Amino acid sequence: MSSARDIMHAGVECVPEMETLDRAAQMMRDRNVGSLPICGSDNKLKGIITDRDIVVKCVAHGLDPSKVTAAEMAQGRIFWVEADADEDEVIRMMQDHKIRRLPVMDDKRLVGMISEADLATHISEEKLARYCNAVYSAPPSM
Q1: Whole-model pTM?
Q2: Average of pLDDT values for 33-58?
Q3: Burial, 142: exposed, middle or buried (Cβ in 10 Å; 0-12, 13-18, 19+)?
Q4: C-beta separation of 80 from 70 below 8 A
Q5: In degrees, to the nearest 5, what angle opens at C-alpha 70 toward C-alphas 114 and 55?
């Protein structure tokens, strides 16, 4: 069974929490990614920002991305997994919290990120189907 370290995309780079969203968008473009972890001056993980966050929570509200910081977008609880966690724990965490990107930590350091694309290339089709069903299924109607 694979570990989080086996599944993750290594070499992840943080956007500093005081960086502006226009710069975060440029970093995403330059790295060809749709999300970046947000790290504080203490190098601790503060959140994750996505390209969709920039559009929906900033631009669509008429805010200026050159004036809004990544820290202002770092909302909610941060979910992460240890590098030695097995693939079942990774999938369970992503399913339970309906998340599409999961930071991987080793000795309190961010060492990688697991995305849906990483799952698709590293886990069985059966496990991937269960994950997709859990994350993308509509809630039962009342």
Answers
A1: 0.85
A2: 91
A3: exposed
A4: no
A5: 80
